[in-house]
Amino acid sequence: MKFTKMQGIGNDYVYVNCFEENVEDPARVAKLVSERHFGIGSDGLILICPSDVADCRMRMFNEDGSEGSMCGNGIRCVGKYAYDHGIVDKPQISVETLGGIKYLDMQVEDGKVKTVKVDMGVPQLTSELPEKIQVEGKTLEFTGIDVGNPHAVYYVDNVDGLDLEKIGPAFEMHERFPDRVNSEFIRVIDRKHLQMRVWERGSGETWACGTGATASAVASMMLGLVDDTVEVQLIGGNLEITWDRESGHVYMTGPAVEVFSGEIDLTQYNGREV
Ligand SMILES: N[C@@H](CCC[C@H](N)C(=O)O)C(=O)O
Questions:
Q1: Is there a catalytic annotation at residue 71?
Q2: Per-residue pLDDT at 266
Q3: Binning pLDDT at 50, 70 and 90, where does residue 270 land?
Q4: Most ligand 1 atoms within 8 A of CB, residue of 12, 58, 67, 70 to mutate
Q5: 3-state secondary structure string, the chain?
Q6: CA-proximal residue: ligand 1, atom 4 (nearest)
Q7: 182 assigned to a ligand binding site
Q8: What integer is the mean pLDDT of 71-87?
Q9: How many CB atoms lie within 10 A of CB 166?
Q10: Which among 18, 49, 56, 71 is annotated as catalytic?
Q11: Interface ipTM
């Protein structure tokens, strides 16, 4: 299978051009390629496929093989791949996802895409603002936001001090979220800056989450804690989020980077069963 490794502020996926390749069992392939010691190493797998309703279609699979409905960092890389590799010949494109059709506006420098602005659509509040929840005996508050996939946003004093490997699963699998949930832990730095770490459904802690940054920004805007444009600072870098309250649409802007390309034999997988 031919692949390209790409990353958006450190949220890295293995991308396959399904205009040319056929991936038979993507859930299994996602688990194989994501493995950081025995595989290529990534937060999951993203397929770039033909679409009947948009310029192309994104299918994204988490590290555990589950299919996600949207991926903010992933969709910027899909746009870059599609433009840089000639699948599309224009910098404004539409991408079909399970979370709806998204519109991308790509900034091109020296013939290659550097940054991408994504119209993430109209976010939906999925909880009270905020809602109380009991996690491992502690009462906390979260704000639930759907931006094509589900998020729960929590405010904490010390983002760096959280042991997410330990506490993350209890948030992801909480009975309040029967489909599991992506959980964001954020601190308001000031009215224009948020700090965030994320525990992603199906992938654990990642260095960034575009949909999570969007949900965190919108939750903070709804609560009146920040202005309608904020920079969200994540482990792997920063994203700019702007909410246009008039139209309801929220926009995410950030970089997309191609790391390397290669070929992997999925029948000979280092002798390891996955
Ligand atoms: N990293 C992503 C989100 C990936 C999907 C998520 N784990 C889910 O299952 O909903 C992003 O950048 O948005």
A1: yes
A2: 87
A3: low
A4: 70
A5: CEEEEEEECCEEEEEEECCCCCCCCHHHHHHHHHCCCCCCCCCEEEEEECCCCCCEEEEEEECCCCEECCCHHHHHHHHHHHHHCCCCCCCEEEEEECCEEEEEEEEEECCEEEEEEEECCCCEECCCCCEEEEECCEEEEEEEEECCCEEEEEECCCCCCCCHHHHHHHHHCCCCCCCCCEEEEEEEEECCEEEEEEEECCCEEECCCHHHHHHHHHHHHHCCCCCCEEEEEECCEEEEEEECCCCCCEEEEEECEEEEEEECCCCCCCCCCC
A6: 71
A7: yes
A8: 98
A9: 9
A10: 71
A11: 0.99
120-161 pLDDT, tens per residue? Answer: 999 999 999 999 999 999 999 999 999 999 999 999 999 999
pLDDT in tens, 182-241: 999 999 999 999 999 999 999 999 999 999 999 999 999 999 999 999 999 999 999 999
Average pLDDT of span 44-65: 98
200 among annotated binding-site residues: yes
Query: From ligand 1's centre to the CA of 71, what distance in Å?
Result: 5
Q: Is the CB of 216 under 6 A from ligand 1?
A: no
Which domains does the chain possess? 2-118+256-263 (3.10.310.10), 124-246 (3.10.310.10)
